[in-house]
Amino acid sequence: MMKIVWSNGFRRAFKKIVRKNPQLKDQIIEVLVLLADDPFTPSLRSHRLGGRLAGLWSCSVAYDCRIIFSLSEDEEILEMFILLINIGSHDEVY
Predict the structure, then answer these.
(1) First vs last Cα of the chain: how many Å apart?
(2) Buried b or exposed e, range 36-46, using 16+ CB within 10 angstroms
(3) Predicted local distance difference test score (pLDDT) of residue 22
(4) What is the pLDDT of residues 24-82, one digit of tens each?
(5) DSSP code at position 52
(6) How far apart are CA 35 and CA 25, in angstroms?
């Protein structure tokens, strides 16, 4: 199980998307649990991004809802963690 860290930008985007689509909240929570367990679970369709988002990853929550995240390592304890960067529709996050 990996640790998940919410960036301030992700926190703001999460509140905004849940305000617009309350039905997505449970789905997002489920995806975050799967992400913590294994970021490469096939149902998440995780993939590396390119261009200005090179070095970041994306996974799917719903048809038009994506989570942008990075895989980072905590230097002190040498453990990988997931930094959540953004969430929103395809057009909002890319």
Answers:
(1) 27
(2) eeebeeeebeb
(3) 95
(4) 999 999 999 999 999 999 999 999 999 999 999 999 999 899 999 999 887 777 788 99
(5) G
(6) 15
Residues 61, 90, 64: CA angle, nearest 5 degrees: 45
**Two tokens at 32?**
């975050």
- AA letter at 92: E
Alpha helices in the chain, H assignment, sequence order: 8-20, 24-37, 90-93
Q: How far apart are CA 66 and CA 28, in angstroms?
A: 9
Residues in the chain: 94
CB count within 10 Å of CB 87 equals 28
Instruction: Copy the structure tokens of residue 59.
Output: 């996974």
Residue with the two structure tokens 């002190």: 76
